[in-house]
């Protein structure tokens, strides 16, 4: 399974780019991009969108990867993960229904 960092690093290497050039084009510090690629830091949503556009990657897939890693990191040592995710999905649907009813 590819991490978000792996995906970003592969995209950069496929385009044969060095970190400095990517950093200049997307206006994100070179050391931050390096940390993203090493999975030492997570980019912000805005940074994800900029990187997706720059590398011509699916914005949707990167966002899914980003959220799934946040959730996995938060729950990795928790029991009843399936039940937590099921209830969370139900709550999301409830919140959406409440918003649509207004």
TrEMBL record:
This is Helix-turn-helix transcriptional regulator. It comes from the Bacteria. Transmembrane segments: none annotated. The lineage of its organism: Bacteria, Pseudomonadati, Bacteroidota, Flavobacteriia, Flavobacteriales. Gene3D superfamilies: lambda repressor-like DNA-binding domains. It comes from Mariniflexile soesokkakense. Residues 8-62 form the HTH cro/C1-type domain. SMART domains: HTH_XRE.
């Amino acid at each position: 399974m590819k991490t978000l960092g792996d995906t970003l690093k592969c995209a950069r290497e496929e385009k044969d780019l060095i970190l400095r050039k990517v950093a200049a084009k997307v206006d994100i510090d070179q050391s931050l991009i390096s940390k993203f690629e090493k999975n030492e830091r997570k980019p912000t949503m805005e940074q994800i969108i900029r990187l997706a556009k720059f590398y011509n990657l699916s914005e949707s897939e990167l966002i899914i990867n980003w959220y799934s890693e946040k959730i996995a990191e938060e729950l990795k040592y928790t029991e009843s993960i399936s039940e937590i995710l099921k209830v969370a999905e139900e709550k999301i649907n409830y919140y959406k229904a409440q918003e649509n009813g207004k």
